[in-house]
UniProtKB/TrEMBL annotation:
It comes from Aeromicrobium ginsengisoli. This is Carboxymuconolactone decarboxylase family protein. It comes from the Bacteria. InterPro entries: AhpD-like (IPR029032).
Length: 199
């Protein structure tokens, strides 16, 4: 149970209601972190714009590597919501999500490539407190992905640290996205309702 409840549609303004509709259309359900942030309209709008802009900005590092780095970060921080949502994103990309069960043994598991192991190590080094990134790590990644690619990876991993730590602090837990059967936030209306009535 989250420490702050999701904002119900009847308590939300028109912009938040539109955001709820768009989120439901995109991922099948309103993500609970989104519905909790809606209590603060400016933070809600800031987060929504930022996530959309971030998706558009990524173009150098292959998406599966980015998703794996973000997933590992969420797993390390212990955000079950982000782990759940991240597994769904990988499933939608057509990736094998069964291998994620072996993320803790990535160094020895044959389910991960050398490139994936390198990205996971980088995620771990950034997420460690204090940070443990080395010059050698960055140099090796620059050689493969260039400066732009390293900036993409670094930004995504550090942003996931923010998301995961915020969700963890607010008591937000998995919502069932990875199974393809996302549970609804408590107030969500039936998807079968006419568009004029549904959120």
């Amino acid at each position: 149970m989250p420490r702050i409840p999701a904002l119900a549609p009847e308590d939300a303004g028109p912009i938040v209601k539109i955001g709820y509709r768009m989120a439901r259309k995109q991922v099948g359900e309103v993500p609970e972190p989104f519905a909790i942030m809606a209590h603060h309209r400016k933070i809600f709008m800031l987060a929504a714009r930022h996530e959309l802009a971030l998706q558009k900005a990524m173009h150098v590092v292959p998406a599966p590597l980015i998703e794996l780095a973000v997933y590992r970060t969420a797993w390390t921080v212990g955000c079950s919501w982000c782990v759940d949502f991240g597994a769904m994103l990988q499933r939608l990309e057509g990736l094998n999500i069964d291998r994620l069960k072996e993320i803790g043994e990535f160094e020895t598991s044959d389910k991960f490539t050398d490139d994936e192991r390198e990205v996971i190590r980088y995620s771990d080094a950034i997420t460690a407190t204090p940070t443990e990134v080395t010059d050698e790590q960055v140099a090796a990644l620059v050689e493969k992905y260039g400066h732009d690619g390293v900036l993409e990876l670094t930004y995504q991993i550090t942003h996931e640290n923010q998301r995961a730590r915020m969700n963890h602090a607010l008591g937000i837990t998995d919502q069932g996205f990875s199974s393809g059967d996302a549970c609804r936030v408590p107030w969500a209306t039936d998807l079968a309702e006419p568009a004029s009535q549904a959120v």
